[in-house]
Amino acid sequence: MNSTTSSISGTMDGIVYQNWGYRNFPFHLPLVNGNYSVTRKSADWDSAARQSVFDVGMLDIDFVSNIDTTKINAILVKPIDPEMYTISASAGTGGSITPSGTTSILSGGSKSFTITPNAGSVIADVTVDGVSIGPLSSYTFSKVSSNHTIQASFASSLIKTIFAVNCGGTSYTDSTGHAYLADTICSGEKEPPPAS
């Protein structure tokens, strides 16, 4: 290794560039599997621009001088945080979606959601990123590479009665709670004439 006490211009980290190694030398870094950023810092005042070249292997870094006396002043290796995305899930009145709220997920990951109607309700629709996918009871995002939304809406499963009459009979309430009105009009009707 070599060093100088001369001032190194063009950088705010001059002291990093006052020491260097060159020719062929290795670094063997014991790293766990993951993504890393590797930055080579070099200042070469002996060679013309773009005339100093070397090859770098995997993260067993073997510096092999190919042209001239390639200098290495410093090496910075740091982990790269994997990208994170969010999935926002919400449900309207009449049911729930699980999990609800905002869920963070790693890039490339998967996440499943379950849609459950309350008693007396049914799933009316599920929308993913604003697009209807129908009344599904579950949905899975796979290989996530962007932010997403999922929304569930519900409707009453009870049929609302507009009109009920007990034709020609008295008022009556059936086993489901529908109340039929008494009727005298139907009882006075004549049979329709036979078709000709």
**Estimated radius of gyration:** 38 Å
Sheet of most strands: 5 strands, mixed
Mean pLDDT: 76
- By helix and strand content, what is the structural category? mainly beta
Helix content: under 10%
**Number of helical segments?**
0
Structural shape: rod-shaped
Write the layout of secondary structure elements.
Layout: E1 2-3, E2 19-22, E3 25-28, E4 36-41, E5 53-55, E6 60-67, E7 71-72, E8 74-79, E9 84-91, E10 95-98, E11 101-106, E12 111-117, E13 121-128, E14 131-134, E15 138-141, E16 148-156, E17 172-173, E18 179-180
Parallel strand pairs: 9-16
Antiparallel strand pairs: 1-2, 2-7, 3-6, 4-8, 5-6, 9-11, 10-12, 12-15, 13-14, 13-16, 17-18
General description of the model:
There is one protein chain. The chain contains no helices and 18 strands. With 196 residues, the protein is mainly beta. The strands form six sheets. The chain has a five-stranded mixed beta sheet with strand order 11-9-16-13-14, with no helix packed on it. A hairpin with a 2-residue loop joins β13 and β14 (131-134). The protein is rod-shaped.
Describe the structure concisely for a colleague.
Helix content is 0%, strand content 45%. It has strands at residues 2-3, 19-22, 25-28, 36-41, 53-55, 60-67, 71-72, 74-79, 84-91, 95-98, 101-106, 111-117, 121-128, 131-134, 138-141, 148-156, 172-173, 179-180.
